[in-house]
Design goal:
Structural class: alpha/beta
Strand content: 25-35%
Distance between the termini: 28 Å
CATH architecture: 3-Layer(aba) Sandwich
CATH topology: Rossmann fold
């Protein structure tokens, strides 16, 4: 494995309680923890991942939250992805 590059992901420090950053590390992913200005995870250089429960996703669709976030990302090279699955 020496010459292989590890996958790298930036994880928002507030995601630590979900257990996902530690799970990613166990799978061999290099996880850089920092407070992110957008999203919960960033996969360099062009993907922003926002994790949401199904109820949070529905709530954000019914309020201005989703529209505001989507508009904020328009014109960038980043993608906005939501995950409505149950916690791991």
């Amino acid at each position: 494995m020496s010459g292989e590059r590890k996958a790298r992901v930036y994880a928002d420090v507030r995601e630590e309680a979900s257990g996902l950053p530690s799970l990613l590390e166990q799978l061999g992913v290099l996880v850089v923890r920092k407070q992110l200005s957008e999203g919960d995870y960033v996969i360099p250089e062009d993907t922003v991942i926002e994790r949401k429960s199904a109820s949070d996703f529905i709530s954000s669709l019914l309020t201005a939250g989703f529209s505001t976030r989507r508009q904020g990302l328009q014109g960038t090279t980043k993608r906005f992805t939501t995950d409505g699955r149950r916690p791991l």
